[in-house]
Amino acid sequence: MHDVAINVQNRVLSVVRSVLQQNAIIADVHPESRLVDIGLSSMGMVELMLKVEAEFDLILPQFEITPENFRSVKAMERMILNQLGSGSG
After folding, report:
1. For residue 40, which of 17, 64, 63 has the smallest C-alpha distance?
2. Per mean pLDDT, which range of 27-31, 46-50, 84-88 is the poorest?
3. What sign results for the dihedral spanned by CA atoms 44, 53, 16, 70?
4. What is the CA angle 15-55-57, rounded to 5?
5. C-beta of residue 15 within 8 angstroms of C-beta of residue 83
6. Greatest Cα-to-Cα distance within the chain, rounded to the nearest angstrom
7. What is the C-alpha separation between 47 and 21, in angstroms, rounded?
8. For residues 47 and 44, what is the distance between their CA atoms, to the nearest angstrom?
9. 1: which residues sit within 8 A by CB, 6+ positions away?
10. What is the percent of the chain with per-residue pLDDT over 90, rounded to a whole number?
11. 3-state DSSP call for residue 63?
12. How far apart are CA 85 and CA 39, in angstroms?
């Protein structure tokens, strides 16, 4: 279970770094980093959401697409684990 969470976190970090790079944002990203503070715009957040869905082969329910769930890598990790059915145990 812990390995699944670490894997999800690493994949989310990779996606976030990719989106930041595409938006010419140079920042050191950690699981607790607030993405809006790093400089990710609302369009960047939409791009991030789409890339997260593609990375994890998910279609996020509308109610999950909230600023809170995309606030940080850690928040996205929790949301994804819940969607994958791994966060409920």
Report:
1. 17
2. 84-88
3. positive
4. 155
5. no
6. 38
7. 12
8. 5
9. 86, 89
10. 81
11. helix
12. 31
